[in-house]
């Protein structure tokens, strides 16, 4: 829809949940999560709702897609190892790689790209407390960014 609320257009029409949409920065594509084929998986479609493509196909929950600034990659959350971690894939679903390794009751979620595409911020629950961390897009250099003593989640980089 337009910023003023006019021109609303329905992009999906499925009996299952379609949720967590993420627009590519060029505005041409939307990644989203759906249960249309069973478990929560990530799909990509054109901004007008055409050409829907399932880009993950696991028995796990793949959620919270986030486009890289150049539109070539998508960071997302998955519980493929029974704990939520941050994964990275090419926009067509190939080259899926696990970036974080959560252990015990730890988990990571809510990826957000830096404007230059070199880092990904995410929330990680370690020892019961949610804190914001960052990691290089190649999986190196994980750094804890907050230590507020209270829960910090859903990070977002400024422009």
Amino-to-carboxy terminus distance:
22 Å
Largest sheet: 4 strands, antiparallel
In CATH, the architecture is 6 Propeller
How many distinct beta strands?
A: 12
The CATH topology is Neuraminidase
| N-to-C order of helices and strands | EEEEEEEEEEEE
In the sheet with the most strands, the strands line up as 1-2-3-4
Integer tally of domains? 1
Given this structure, which CATH class is correct? Mainly Beta
Helix content: under 10%
Structural classification: mainly beta
Number of helices: 0
Low-confidence stretches: none
What's the gyration radius in Å?
16 Å
CATH superfamily: TolB, C-terminal domain
Characterize this entry briefly:
The chain is mostly beta strands and 159 residues long.
Highlighted features:
mainly beta, Neuraminidase, four-stranded antiparallel β-sheet, 0% helix, 41% strand, globular
Describe this structure in words.
This protein is mainly β and 159 residues long. The chain has one domain: TolB, C-terminal domain (Neuraminidase, 6 Propeller), CATH 2.120.10. The chain has strands at 18-23, 29-34, 41-46, 53-54, 62-67, 73-78, 85-90, 97-98, 107-113, 119-126, 129-136, 143-144. The strands form 3 sheets. Strands 1-2-3-4 form a 4-stranded antiparallel β-sheet, with no helix packed on it. It has a 4-stranded antiparallel β-sheet with strand order 5-6-7-8, with no helix packed on it. Strands 9-10-11-12 form a 4-stranded antiparallel β-sheet, with no helix packed on it. The radius of gyration is 16 Å and the shape is globular.
């Amino acid at each position: 829809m337009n910023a003023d609320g006019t021109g609303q257009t329905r992009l999906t029409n499925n009996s299952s949940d379609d949720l967590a949409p993420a627009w590519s920065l060029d505005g041409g594509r939307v990644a989203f999560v759906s249960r249309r084929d069973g478990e929560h998986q990530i799909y990509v479609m054109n901004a007008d709702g055409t050409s829907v493509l399932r880009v993950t196909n696991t028995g796990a929950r793949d959620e919270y897609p986030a486009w890289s600034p150049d539109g070539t990659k998508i960071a997302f959350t998955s519980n493929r190892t029974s704990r939520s971690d941050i994964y990275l894939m090419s926009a067509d679903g190939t080259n899926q790689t696990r970036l974080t390794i959560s252990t015990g009751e730890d988990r990571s979620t809510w990826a957000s790209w830096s404007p230059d595409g070199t880092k990904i911020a995410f929330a990680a629950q370690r020892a019961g407390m949610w804190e914001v961390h960052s990691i290089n897009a190649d999986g190196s250099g994980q750094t804890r960014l907050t230590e507020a003593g209270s829960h910090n989640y859903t990070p977002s980089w400024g422009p």
